[in-house]
């Protein structure tokens, strides 16, 4: 535990690693056969497809679980109105900035790649907010949810919906194997029988369940002891189920509403949940420490998340038709886009209060003159 800011260092490491994983996942979307905003001219890489499936199955659920845990710690330090205000500022402002500034270039590139628009970006701007953007390849241009920033919108809505419930209730004091089975069964049943809005591989209702699981289950101090005791079981079950899910997906999806389709969904849900449990235990055991890199990258994680997809899409647009091997394009896309995002964060975003607020970072604390500090130290 980092006593200075009352944050758990293992959760900060998980956040940083998850941000890197979602970045690599979106890089892989340029090459895999799934619909995306801009695609490479060659899409026959089974290695990249397997990577996309293995990462995509658990990456967004763990974001919502960590957000649920963070909500618990946040409500321990502040009252509910400060909690809600913070959520609006830290999530709402970056979302609005993303919708108005970062989303139009992405939609423009998609329209250009799909030959739905032939003019320049300046010529596209008058059309940027015409029609609601519903799906890739559609006709509407106004993506009110910010495309990849739907996570911020969902998290803000979840936080508002659950604030009263969180204030009036507490996490489970003692987590047992039974509780973990109930969590998995509930997520499985909702995944199979409920359908609202499908985003990032999961239904929006399922993400709410992961958020609730983070608050009521993962924030409980008793969970980690259980996970460390049965770590090999959760890791083995998680890896086995996700490997079977990935191999089955590549071979061919089962018919919908069939018994084998139910088994396929079981592999995805059980594999994802158990792998998250194992990852959570690993981070707690080996990453419960802080250093300069963690402090820097933890603050950079949200700006990196906000900025990464526009950079990947624009970069991909310029290399998509080049006759280079996939591995060369992948190396260029990953390295150059990472460098551009990192430079933008270090040179521009983190240095100025205005840009820090736009990208969801707290303002820098003003340094207190040494004489003032001495005065504070000598008076009770």
What structural class results from the helix and strand content?
mainly alpha
Number of helices: 15
Q: Based on CA inertia axes, which overall geometry fits?
A: globular
Q: Beta-strand level of the residues, as a percent range?
A: under 5%
Largest sheet report: 2 strands, antiparallel
Fraction in helix:
55-70%
Quickly count the domains.
1
Descriptive overview:
With 380 residues, the chain is mainly α. The protein has one domain. Helix content is 69%, strand content 1%. It is built from 15 helices and two strands. A two-stranded antiparallel sheet has the order 1-2. α1 crosses α11 (259-286) and α2 (46-56) packs across α10. The longest helix has 34 residues, at 80-113. The radius of gyration is 22 Å and the shape is globular. The protein starts with 8 loop residues before the first helix and ends with a helix. Residues 368-380 have low confidence and may be disordered.
